[in-house]
């Protein structure tokens, strides 16, 4: 999870970009101070240096693109979206899992417990 310092710098950089202002450490610091957020002194410079020479617009657009490092990973065992007509197999697997869960629950209702 991102720290408050990191988030403050990210939001400041996004505000500067949205207003068409060059992203510098001094401007990030100014926005953070205006927001009354306490940040370690190295964060604004680190973010300004990391964004230097990069188009923030292209970074934002590529963040949600397929195959990007920030894209969400598929669910475990899911293997991504099913192909056309492949949804039936997933439903069958869910039904099998539900049946297994029901049979396990019925074992608990045999009228006695472990410590009875």
Q: Do you know the CATH topology of the domain at 4-63?
A: Arc Repressor Mutant, subunit A
Q: Shape, please?
A: elongated
Query: With helices defined by DSSP (H or I, 4 residues minimum), what is the helix count?
Result: 5
Please state the second-level CATH architecture of the domain at 4-63.
Orthogonal Bundle
What portion of residues belong to β-strands? Answer: under 5%
Mean pLDDT: 75
* Low-pLDDT windows of residues: 70-84
Fraction in helix: 55-70%
Distance between the termini: 46 Å
- What's the Cα radius of gyration? 25 Å
* Classification by helices and strands: mainly alpha
Q: Summarize the main sheet.
A: none
Number of strands: 0
CATH class of the domain at 4-63 equals Mainly Alpha
Order of helices and strands: HHHHH
GO molecular function, one term: protein kinase activator activity
Function: Plays an important role in the elongation step of protein synthesis.
Biased composition (Gly residues): 66-87
Family: Belongs to the eukaryotic ribosomal protein P1/P2 family.
């Amino acid at each position: 999870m991102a720290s408050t310092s990191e988030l403050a710098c990210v939001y400041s950089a996004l505000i500067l970009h949205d207003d068409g202002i060059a992203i510098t450490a001094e401007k990030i610091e100014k926005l953070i101070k205006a927001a009354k957020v306490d940040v370690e002194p190295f964060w604004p410079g680190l973010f300004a240096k990391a964004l230097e020479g990069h188009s923030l617009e292209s970074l934002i657009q590529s963040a949600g693109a397929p195959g990007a490092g920030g894209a969400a990973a598929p669910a475990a065992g899911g293997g991504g979206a099913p192909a056309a007509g492949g949804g039936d197999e997933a439903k069958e697997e869910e039904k099998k899992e539900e049946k297994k869960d029901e049979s396990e629950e019925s074992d608990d209702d045999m009228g006695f417990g472990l410590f009875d």
